[in-house]
Design brief:
It is built from 14 helices and 8 strands. With 325 residues, the protein is of the alpha/beta class. Strands 7-6-5-4-3-2-1-8 form an 8-stranded parallel beta sheet. α11 crosses α13 and α13 runs antiparallel to α14. The chain binds phosphoenolpyruvate and magnesium ion. The site of phosphoenolpyruvate has 10 residues, from β2 and α9.
Length: 325
Amino acid sequence: RQERYRELRDLPAETRDSERIKLLVNAGLLVDLPQLADAGADGIGLFRTELQFMVASAMPKTSEQERLYAAVLDAAGEKPVTFRTLDVGGDKVLPYLHQSPEENPALGYRALRLALDKPGLMRTQLRALLRAAGGRELSVMFPMVTDIDELRQARDLISREFKQQTRFGHVMPRRLKLGAMIEVPSMLYQLDELMALVDFVSIGSNDLFQFFCAVDRGNTQIAGRFDDLSPPFFKALRDILRAGERNAVSVTLCGELASRPLSAMALIGLGFRSISMTTSAIGPVKSMILELDAGHLAQELDSFLEDRFRMGTLREFLTTYAETH
Ligand code: PEP
Ligand code: MG
């Protein structure tokens, strides 16, 4: 199998009906980078910047952050990289950042909420990103956006930092793309407002599903109880894709859902043309794509989702589809 995946490495991920699918990887540390080229991925769809903070015993300095981001961009070369700003709090604890105990950390003081309250922390990181990408293209996205105003504040911070760094004579990115993660269900009802403010969105299906079904993603007793291959969740994803088309904003998905060939197949059937996954999933997912007729699946999936009297689960439908086509 590994051998076969290696053979696929230099082939574009294209379905039988000629739909080119962008396959990106999720990464977070320097050690992830050599695998990027080996896997035959199209770029990094999610760079989890918090990992550098989590493995350090003290807050990484601006220069250390800048060095890492520059190394990531160097390693990626011409391929695109999307950096996510610090996503700490919840299950991601920094030992040196004091946080009060919380009863519901997943719903608590985390990610963008924390970052907007500590603009020093956020501006240091944005400064490191802007400097690291001097003369190149930079894509930055913000995690756990819950309302539009948070995104306005985040955009404001980055544009202030951009101006200040320019004034200080630093070379700034030649192009800056800003994005939001969609991982809180409140965003589903402000998609057009959101999309007016960003260049791209990326769905964090792990958190979106956790909040969509009110099911703790880390609690093994219940995490597997509800299936993320389910019609209501897929309809939510479809609404995001449609809003992306309406607003000419690109939509990617970077949660675990993209890492399993069966669910990646379903995402492509739904209309996704760009997905980001763990590196080891690239081979299996590409192999699935080469066999797939995306247009045919799209029709079948749509009829399944629209059929009120459907029998069986979405997972059963997809499994049968994968076996018979
Ligand atoms: C997600 O929530 O799906 C996601 C990609 O982010 P993380 O898993 O880092 O929370
Ligand atoms: Mg998340």
